[in-house]
Amino acid sequence: MSPPAFSRRPSRASSWRALRRPAAAAAVLALALGLGAAPAQAGAEYPFRDPALPLQQRIDDLLGRLTLAEKVSWLHQYQPAVDRLGIGLFKTGTEALHGVAWSTDVDDGGNVVTARGTVFPQAVGLASTWNPDLVRRVGSAVGDEARGHHAENPRVWGLQLWAPVVNLLRDPRWGRNEEGYSEDPLLTGAISTAYGRGVQGDDPDHLKAAPVLKHFMANNNEIRRDTANSSLRPRVMQEYELPAFRAAISADAATGVMTSYNLVNGRPATVTDLNASVRRWTDRALFNVSDAGGPNNLTGSQRYFATQPEAAAAMVKAGVDSFTVDNTNGAPTVASVNAALEQGLLTEADIDRAVRNILGVRFRLGEFDPDGGPYGKITKAVVDSPAHRALNRRAATEATVLLKNSGLLEDSGGEDPGRGSGKSRGTLPLDPSAKVAVVGPLARTLYTDWYSGALPYQVTPLDGIRERAAGTVDTEGVDRIALKAGGKYLTAPTGAGGDLRLSAAAAGETEQFDVFDWGEGVVTLRSVANGKYVSRANWSTLANTQNQPTGWFVQEQFTLETRADGSTLLRYAGYETAEPWFGPNVYVKAAADGTLSLTTAENATPFTKETVRSGIDEAVAAAKSADAAVVVVGSMPFINGREAHDRTDLNLAAGQQALVEAVHAANPRTVVVLENSYPATIDRLAEKVPAILWTTHAGAETGHALADVLYGTANPAGRLTQTWPRAGTGLPDILDYDIIKTGSTYLYSKEKPLYAFGHGLSYTTFGYQGLRAVRDGDGHRVSVKVTNTGSRAGDEVVQLYTHQHASRVEQPVKQLRGFERVSLAPGESKTVTFRVKTADLALWDVTRNRFAVEGSTHDVLVGSASDRIRQRTTIRVDGERIPARDLTRTVRAADFDDYAGVELVDETKASGDAVEAASGEWIAFEDADLGRGATGITLGVAATAASSVEVRRGSPTGRLLGTVQVPATGGLYRWGTAAAPIAGASGKQDLYLVFRGGLRIRDLVLTR
Hints:
This protein is α+β, with helices and mostly antiparallel strands.
């Protein structure tokens, strides 16, 4: 689930987690009093309570006993109790992305309840294990803990879990990168299927918990996320976007999808037809939900419907079963659905279909079984159990990626035959007898993210290293400053903290602040007085009250702006300052009595910044006193990249970069631990420092996992799940979803990356021999022998890619077709076998709107990363030759072969795609068979003003064959036709439609 997409002013709750007002708490109390669970024996005699009956018979029985009013009420996220049938409240949605996190419910203080339990590595870290079996075990533990919390408080902890996120990581700037798995649909599908299966449990008829995939679909940007249009040409949709969702649904490893905020081809995803897509991938009932606030966006920011009843009807007809909106208050949803029924926009049969879907999952959760089903006896005792702690440590360890380790064979080239001896010694593993300097802003702490639960304990990187090293010295390596103005210093209270004031004449500890640089100019200030972070409290003053930066607007963000005269302005940089309503009052001003407020830059107080202690100087001294240095740098998950905020660059914070470089200059045996949630352009560090480890924010066991890898107890085998570009690599517009046209991701990029998709090193070496690819039924069986040629036991992630030689369309540079993580002792070999079905090699044929396998030769490539291919062969795939286009039959305009500048939009508000274009933009239909000559063209058009379309041959500036004059049709959804004669169109041609003026085209046909 996500917070509502619309802007919130300070007068509203400052966070979606903080619905957080007494009124919200009162609403929950009202639910508790009025909608409480009925006595356990109520309705026990009804057939729907009998688990011996077939599921559909039980559903039919219960559905037939519900009134229309009761059924309508169940379309809201808080499905009220039905006391007369002994049915209790059912609440959708508990966040469980990498452990049970939080609930949409609130406690008596108005605070959203956060779970305290096992926080596993962030989702991108789980995928970096490339180990579906491990991820399934993690999912099972999450399902257990969801049941445990539910057993304690079923009102707060619902068993429908809004996880996993399967949105593809096509753009590394996406603010929610940490939530996804991979830029590749096959890997994403395998990991999401594993997680979902674990959450659900192994019982064929019952669910431990019900995973819901987020966010359907093409949701990989936060900027304008509720109004931006993800324009998906058919190949991108069918070959890239949909497979990521199809995998888990078709494997019955998920029980529904959550619709995303964005528009897909001009139509809000909230009303994109799920019946024509996800429901066709399984015979199981799917319980689909909207994202938070999505129903209201339809008439609000998106202005797609004039009234809420129209919006509600469209959602239900599109296959959305539950409205996530208005917190605990179901009345607006009920009113809009009832109005839609009264207006004839919906029928009771439509409501019944949605409620059937809901019941299909609620029954499988065991809710209506007398004993709660096979998972009904799980208790809170499972939460944070020793077994889950051990699993968490393993997951964090396996997720760790060794990016660089000088002295090993990592630079031996893409065709390395794997004959390395494994005797070369890198900087890692560290010697336990060595003294280690542990340095960096993330060395002493663990951070959680927006979708994390609360850590029940913490093992920091420093803790983990201290357990192993003979001796340690540590420092965070951050500057400690004091701010002075008018002869007085900025002072913070001790204890729990409070308002800062300009008051003290000298800079003692209460006047000092540690400055943490998070990049893009943003810093946080930690008060030395009490160790808490400075925050903009009560939407006005500054106070040292926060344990870590948090909340929706993250009010702990500041910048220190140096003026020409050397003075410093303290600027508040919380996320809400980007909202248009916030205004220019973001600079700190001290009144005559020392109290602080926000004002404009012109009226701000100029401070003198005094450096009490240099972080770099301390770090250098520590590094010089040790045998080796470990520098822990990275991100703070609430800053510079998180929900609602994309990153503007991929750089490591400048202050952190300088820290690493200074430590390395002081001690060449420096290891960098990069702890963040996304690719970073660390080219300079990759050139200079000898060893680099990458991990996500990996939960309470982070320190143990890092120490296991640093000291060689565990041999790293994590692999990157997305491409890390080099500094200076041009990235396309984040709103451009056409990875084929833009050459994005490892699939289509021809750029040399800093670290490739699938990259990751080991402390041992592996050899590959004897690659074979033989025909096997409806595909090919590919096998390769992998041998541990080094002196340490270790895991290798064997990756299979293919590349098609000849094709009608542009093919991926290479595409992942299979992978397996194998464990090998020194000298041990294993034959790894993959099966590639011929159908898996199909492309989406836009000329016939179906998948097609072309007859072609394919490279078969096996290696340890997408750029480290160790063995290769070829296979011949029998298939068809896609015929020339027949434009004498009506062709959808969206099925073009190439284009410039156009956008795919909605033909109607219910279905269909069309092409929207401005003057000078064009679409092309290649290899069109015009026979002995075409004499005319007819276009299906919609336009608000008169325009025209030029028909050209060979190129957008090629020979003009004719011009279609398009009159205004009366609106973008008022479709008509426009025709014109053409001349010179014969034989096989590439046909171009060049637009002169703005209009929409839905189809075209040539006449002879």
